[in-house]
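Thread: quick sanity check before group meeting

JM: Hey all, I'm pulling together slides for Thursday and realized we never actually wrote out the predicted structure for the chain we discussed last week. Dropping the sequence here so it's in one place. If anyone has concerns about the input, flag it before I start.
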Amino acid sequence: MSGDCRLVIIRWQDSRQPCGQWRYLAALPEQKAVEVASVGWLVKDTADVKVLAQNIGDLAHPENAQASGIMTIPTRCVLSIETLTEDAGPTFSAGPTDFADRRAGSAAPAVAGHDPSFDSEPKPRELEPLLA
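JM (edit): ok, ran it. Output follows.
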């Protein structure tokens, strides 16, 4: 791993999970690829592959930098790559009930039990590329 590693979101196409049961070929539903969004540090970017790491550690000593959660995506499957930047504005965090409510058709996130005393204003900081 060499050079700067950007924090990115990669949208890419993947295959669907195999169906283990027997089916008549004439009765197969239309099959489509699955669009996936993956976020991580772009540690390798070549014509053949994009390699993301979810975690990078020992940054104070670049010669000892380590990564985990490493994923290799074939470049030919990539739909887009967007560099992520930190927004200095307010943030929203979602829990399982927020997503359950949205799936049920509610447009507003659930806020029951919300305690504003735990809110904290995000602190803007300079974004720095990760040196690897």
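AS: nice. The chain has one domain: 4-16+30-121. The mean pLDDT is 78.
JM: adding both to the slides.
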